[in-house]
Amino acid sequence: MRIDRLDHLVLTVADIDATVRFYTEVLGMELVRFGAGRLALRFGDSKINLHEAGREVEPHALRPTPGSADLCLVLAGEPSEALAGARARLAEHRVAIELGPVERTGARGGIESLYVRDPDANLIELSVYPAAAPGAGAGMQPGANAGTDSGADAAGIP
């Protein structure tokens, strides 16, 4: 078996309306309605399905808990413009940047990231991959040590 990509994930939230506002108005995702009153947030080729705490759809995580997620979202566009645009959008909506910009390691190599919190205090990492450079993009190799993020341990953020 070989996994190709992540299609969707489920985020358990305390207040669906507040979550929808944050992810659509601040992060620019698209609200999608499906099934019997279900909601999702679409971006790129992926989506986040929303479950309200205490009203989860079966089957669900063993311990569905608001505020327990740590997500890295890659911004579209030219890296420096995308990061500057994200900072401006966050400021416009009075969303505090918890950390960043900082260098981290994504699935395809080095990234530059900003960290914020959503309404449930989930950690949201907004990232860009640098413009292509000679030798760049090696990414994570199977079995490679993933603990090379600069400052990650000291800051207490992955």
Description:
- This is VOC family protein.
- It comes from Brevibacterium rongguiense.
- InterPro entries: Glyas_Bleomycin-R_OHBP_Dase, Glyas_Fos-R_dOase_dom, GlyoxalaseI/FosfomycinResist, VOC_core.
- By secondary structure, this protein is of the alpha/beta class.
- Helix content is about 20%, strand content about 35%.
- The protein has 3 helices and 8 strands; from the N terminus they run βαββββαβββα.
- The strands form 2 sheets. A 4-stranded mixed sheet has the order 1-4-3-2, covered by helices on one side.
- The longest helix is centred in the middle third of the chain and has 14 residues, at about 80-90.
- It starts with 7 loop residues before the first strand and ends with a helix.
By oligomeric state, this entry counts as single chain
User: Would you tell me which CATH topology of the largest domain applies?
Assistant: 2,3-Dihydroxybiphenyl 1,2-Dioxygenase, domain 1
Mean pLDDT: 88
Strand content: 25-35%
| Total discrete domains | 2
Distance between the termini: 28 Å
Count of alpha and pi helical runs: 3
Task: Give a quick account of the main beta sheet: strands, pairing sense, barrel closure.
Answer: 4 strands, mixed
Kindly provide the name of the CATH class of the largest domain.
Alpha Beta
Beta strands, count = 8
Binned, the helix content reads: 10-25%
C-alpha-based Rg, rounded: 16 Å
User: Helices and strands: which structural class?
Assistant: alpha/beta
Any idea what the shape is?
A: globular
Strand and helix order: EHEEEEHEEEH
Q: So, the CATH homologous superfamily of the largest domain? A: 2,3-Dihydroxybiphenyl 1,2-Dioxygenase, domain 1
Poorly predicted segments: 133-137, 145-155
